[in-house]
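FAQ
Q: What does a multi-component entry look like?
A: The components come first, one per line:
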Amino acid sequence: MPAVGTNVPRKDSTEKVTGTARYVDDLVFPGMLHARTIRSTIPRGRIRDVRLSFDRAGFTIIDHRDVTGRNVVALIEDDQPLLAEREIRHVAEPILLLAHEDLDTLRRARVDIDYEPLEPLFDPTRSTQLLKDLRIVKGDVEQALAGAEVVVEGEYRTGHQEQLYIEPNGVIAVPENGGVTVHGSLQCPFYVHKALRIALGLPDDRIRVVQTETGGGFGGKEEYPSVIAAHAALLALKAKRPVKLIYDRLEDMLATTKRHPSIVRHRTGVTRDGRLVAMDIEVLMDGGAYVTLSPVVLSRGAIHAAGPYRCDHVRIEARAVGTNTPPNGAFRGFGAPQTQFAVEVQMERIAEALSMDPARLRELNALRPGDTTATGQRVEADCSALQVLQQAVERSDFHGKRERYAGTNRGIGLSLFFHGAGFTGSGEVKLASRAALCTTERGVRILVGSAEIGQGTRTMHAQIVADSLGIPYEDVETGLPDTSNVPDSGPTVASRTCMVVGGILQRCASDLRERIGDMHPREHFTKHGATVVTKEYEPPHGIAWDDDTYRGDAYATYAWACDVAEVEMDPDTYEIRPIHFTAVQDIGKAIHPVLVAGQIEGGTAQGIGYALIEEVVMREGAMANAQMTNYLVPTTLDTPTMDVVIVETPSHHGPFGAKGVGEMPIDGPAPAIVNAIRHLGLDIRQIPATPERIAEAACVSA
Amino acid sequence: MRLRVNGRDWEVDAPPMARLLDVLRVQCELPGTKEGCGEGECGACTVLVDGEPVCSCLVPVAHADGAEVTTIEGLGGDHRLQRAFAEHGAAQCGICTPGMIMAALALPSSPSLDDVRVALAGNICRCTGYHAIYRAILRA
Amino acid sequence: MRTAAAALDLVRPKSVEQALRAMADDPSLVPIAGCTDVFVGLNAGTFPGTRFLDLWPLEELREIGIRNGAIAIGALATHAMIQESAAVTSRIPILAAACREIGGIQIQNRGTLGGNVANGSPAGDTLPVLAVADAVVVLRSASGERRVPFNAFFTGYRTTVRRPDELIVAFELPPIVDVQWFRKVGTRAAQAISKVVMAVVGGERPRIAVGSVGPTVIRCTKTEAAIAGGATFDEASHILEAEVQPIDDIRSTASYRRRVCGNLLRRFGADTGR
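Then the predicted structure of the entire assembly, as tokens:
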């Protein structure tokens, strides 16, 4: 019986429902020390003096002078120090590390730091520190705008968003084999491996990174674990003992990365009958104090900025700039939620300006197979923007409700969106990911660096391998990635784990099948011992991308979706309550429908939080509401009923037709909700649309 | 202090203001109960004290002195809620799952969807959007 | 950074009398019950006290009953017990409604009415209810008992008339004959700290109390007088908006809170047919 397309038991469900799954804070090593990070309390300045006001007995203490390799967090640019030397660029910048056997003694240790404060900059529109800029040009925007019958302009803003995985960041570093092993809660074991090699100045084979069961990531454990892993490793190597470094919630919220705030401006030319003729778009993202992943977040954001629409003349100018807040970084969607919020609210305003039905406007302009995107990519037969739109409109009774809700305290709105699967442009080629299969006495074992962070990596990979080999799902073994025994499959990000890594595994399976003939791999193992097949990513034929001009095939393929939000406003408190959600999402093929629905429902809930209540309050460059009491995410009572429809228009790029599903669900809810609020007569162009902002808008419209 | 945890008696040597959460995880070696926030907001540390769900990060161990404490480990591995959570994809990353199941245990039998939503309002899940959890509990 | 548990003392009296004696001997003792606020502070390392007096096991402080026509609610009654009490739900359902809005079930099982008052947060959800109910706070010390009107209990931001040797042992709530109304406004549907929390009692002697709009919960006497004097609810709402003293903070803005106060009073008027 095939496994793909069925709801086989998750590989990790027993451990997770019985409480036996081991997360990093559950692990104890003999002789282990606990660690703590001393951080800056000012947003910008210079360190004048550091005084340790405690008895140092039993402490291991590290500052920048103890960094044995290079004092950098190795990522895209090497601008971020592991430990501040003299210059401070944001609040909560790590300065000193302490470790001690006794947690209470560690907590009581007092460190006083004197600073020479400098004027900080928090407004990205005033920043002169350019982290990355890029330009996408198609046709002649100025000329097309000049000839347009109607031009609609608008500016849209989105705030920070905190990932708020329920397990905070944490690692344990263990000195062993002349080097160090780091166990941690993380998404990208090989990112951490590389960062450790550079920070510690050790050869590859002295460093081992093992993912522990990970209590959520959502991008928040993409790049940050490199920092915390290097900190723990430096302490462990100096102390010659295992060191556990676990953040509490406050520290995690204060110090680690968030979604980039954005300001997006649109100038759109349309004909009176609703055809897009020109889209002029400016994207500004606030990267915070260091580069981290800003260039690639910006890149994905820019590529998705014109939405899933056909338009011959498009210009997208995008910049990421530096400010004196903690650096922003990866969060599910990776730039696309910001820019698709802007374009989808802009589309709603265009419909309004033309007195046109918003679904009809989108229907007219939605990309069809053979059309080209802003980067000039010709979308293939799996482009189903029109179908998901029509299905969502029909299923939600969009037009009926739009009429019935008019003049009441209910509103309905929709958003049409898409999401490219895999790394942008030539990213996958540069990554050159590898995956492997190894025969075992049970069947076959999957060897990948992809992390299970709740989304179902192990289960989904095992289904692909089982069916590709023609063996039962139960005969496929999976495990936690350990860099000492799995190949580098690239990071667990960018909705790439199924389409890209799953695709490599599928090739491994067919190669293995050829080698072992008709035999069950177990049988082959018994007769011949272990056989390992390793395959590397092969770029699909006919895909071309130019990094310099931002022209070409930005992604192998895209997933397509349409959300319809129904909301109710409390006229006394201006609270917007989402009451029902329809999410029609085409992800090519649902390898495991329950897991896919889980991604859509969970991503939608995060998107609802992003739209309405999740507000990072920044005061003097620091998150002022860094507690779960004050940074509010949706509870059971804030999450509406959802009608999730999984559409399967297969893509020839992914295994069994599958594309990416992890990120797309968070792109649509915010614009759908804000468009539903617009249906209530309120002009909202900034999220989160908190009751305070709704009250202001209601005041203007009253 | 004397605790009865999952049917077993423990003589606990801890400061009376130590958190029940830490005593369970470290001294009783029951790390199935998780810490997500330390402020009673996320519910990941939910255990039953004398049958009632509480946040063990906010309970001094002195308040469990003489009490019956049940943690996720106390359900064995084949409780109907555990089976249903596994079957319906209610556990994704799994960190909220033990607390979620312990909170669900306090529900009346055959609960309505509204009962479930109210009973779990003190447990945050960031992965599922809650719907798989409802499906699991309603069909358990 | 979390406070070290080993550095904290806990005195565990066996009776209320022992507790009162301990408080008389050592005024630095912080009485604790459900710990749902205290431990948030200890876990964040921001709680100033280090010596605690454990009231939790003192069952006699947990009773809910009728005394001289008033409901007497022991200070240790939990939010869950109050919701389940027939005496409360039949006589003062708005108190049960307020308790239902406090945290999740886990918090309601431990948090107590006495704790909500003693903590003294201006956002405390039960406080406006006690204020409009003209509740009496029963304070006891080794030297005796005194009764303080709830509306004279708070003297400022988290400050009260309670002496360090006194314990809140109960609240007495006289019967309310007129219509009663309660509304909490947080940013999300469950487990939110109030941005505005309001309780109203109608009738000839209208009573209005609002939390999260000043240093303590406030009784809005000017607005009450206006309504008693025949003002419409729309007029009264404008008076209320001027009477409350909200501030901008990390949870909301002064202007939002002001406006919502006015709207809620109008809603009360509309709901009760005025």
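Q: Is there any commentary attached?
A: Sometimes. For this entry: The CA atoms of residues 3 and 45 of chain C lie 5 Å apart.
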